[in-house]
């Protein structure tokens, strides 16, 4: 298994290894054990994840100003962010890198194809830590496994993570649930998963046919029902919390997503703790059950 310090730090213009960067562990005044969706949806995606030794963002799809303000609302300074973990190179997942990575110098953790996509998107290259899809690596006290998902870009990934005795799952932007996705999300304690749309609302929308084909296709986005089927498959007594993410603002609603999924699971006598991540406001933080801890602040 790779440790972050053992991963190569690249300047993608030169290809040469750069000096070690931000690898010194920080000592935090507060203990952060949880995650909080800062924004979720087609306008931008960003999740804060905090542990005893790390503060990271999963994706950076909103502006730096918005990220700074949303982090402040949960008691976190953007200057404390150790790294940004990227799922794929679409704009609603990377547009905030313009300042956070290029100007502030926060390291970006991505696979090779995503790193190339980011460099092409900005016509500039931040400092990358390159991981390999399918290979587990360590960052501080997190063990991170990037796994392949079906989406319409090069080498998109979801993440399963180990933190102390917990397993975490983060998986959005996938056209359908593969056997690999199911296996990677089995036995999770906390799960952030896509429930993007209701196909009826997609068909009824005024969006052009090419959009509808993309969203409903095998490399598009996950429907409410497909999400419910996945949850049925991976449900187990230790699944403490599920957050539904990346809801379409036009082709889904919070109420419809929850109703569809709860009704499906109810037919199988499954009752999960569900909530929905929001686009414009900070969602309710999730606190890991690890014993005594100081919770995230929330306004």
Would you kindly provide a brief summary of this structure?
It contains 9 helices and 16 strands. It is an alpha/beta fold and 299 residues long.
Tell me the span between the first and last alpha carbons. 39 Å
| Domain count | 1
Instruction: Give the fraction of residues assigned to helices.
Output: 10-25%
* H-E order: EEEEEHEHHEHEEEEEHEHHHEHEE
Mean pLDDT: 90
What's the architecture in CATH terms?
Answer: 4-Layer Sandwich
Widest sheet, order of strands: 1-9-10-11-12-13-14-15
Task: Please state the overall shape, judged from the principal axes of the Cα atoms.
Answer: globular
What share of the residues does DSSP label as strand, in percent?
15-25%
Low-confidence stretches: 13-31
| Top-tier CATH class | Alpha Beta
Largest sheet: 8 strands, mixed
